[in-house]
Write a structure and sequence with these properties.
two-stranded antiparallel sheet; Thiolase family protein; 17% strand; acyltransferase activity, transferring groups other than amino-acyl groups; Peroxisomal Thiolase, Chain A, domain 1; Thiolase; Thiolase_C_2; alpha/beta
Amino acid sequence: MRLSDVAVVGVGLTPQVKRSERNSLQVALDAAKLALADAGLRHTDVDGIAARWPGPGGTELAPGSADWSTLLGVPIGWIGDSYPQGVPALVDAAGAILTGQATTVLITGGQAGVLGGGRVASYTRPGNEFVEPFGAFTATHFALVAQRHLARFPHARRGAAEIAATIRTTGSANPDAVMHGRGPYTADDVLAAPPVVDPFTLLDLCLASEGGAAIVVTTLERARDLPHPPVVLLGAGMEWARQQYVDPARYDEVWSLGADAGRKAFALAGLGPSDVDVAQLYDVNSLEVARQFEALGFCATGEGTDFAIATGIGPDGKLPTCTDGGLLSFSHIGWGAPTLKIVEAVRQLRGTAGARQVAGAEVALAAGAGSGAQYYNAALLGRAR
């Protein structure tokens, strides 16, 4: 069997909002129900799950005695809990399915009831020795990398603002986006926004919002009997430099982070960057989008912003990017955010993205994390043939 014998058959999103009255476990379960309904499956069809585990061990979602087997009312034969969201979870699920550990895997997550007021979100300031005592937060780690890059390529500052403006304008037109109706934006708007951490302004940086996201993965054979056209996993790759947000990121080590992951993903798929029709990059900030274009081989180092502008990353461009408005404008739901990228990729490949649909999209790139986080992952998804 091959990776392309594994398909995403269901996607589910709860409302994406600035603040939710529900909690993280509730929105993850809500998203799971939506994804199963979208797949035409029942909870009893699930025999594998990748999710932050509510009970003991693993990446804890919430304290207490709840567990996914009880919540779903079924025994679980396989659990993915090392990085149970986005591309890593999808790859783990594919491995479980291809080796017979599971037949149908649910991937779900998100956050709710954890944000409030004007405080920095707690997960952006982990209790590490070089972070919490100095008041650092995740955007600072990315800013250190960005400062070094802009010292080498000063022209990229305005180009990064152009990228942010384009993605935010895309999100402004999406009725489901947290920032719906808050555009259009220009590069000047981005540059003139309140500064947060040099070189980034408020409009350069992604949201902190709340909601859930889920996908359902199964075999291509089974997928052909389900309601939607199957979207198969063509290739994937991952890189882990070190634990995120402990040691400051070093520019020379992380600017090209993702190059190996991209090469693995494209090689497994038998494709190249020019074959990608839509790119759901992990847009935690404006310059990170340009960095990913460079690392993934779309262009050379220092040319990321020029590539984005010349190619066109808006809905009418040659490479529509973050077509739902991305983390900058659609939503960023903490641990669940990487799964948002797969949800949008699947919708584009199915042809069900509505007014933002990219005509003829056959290959989608979905990615997660980046330079400041010091790990990266990427997957190529395509229509089943």
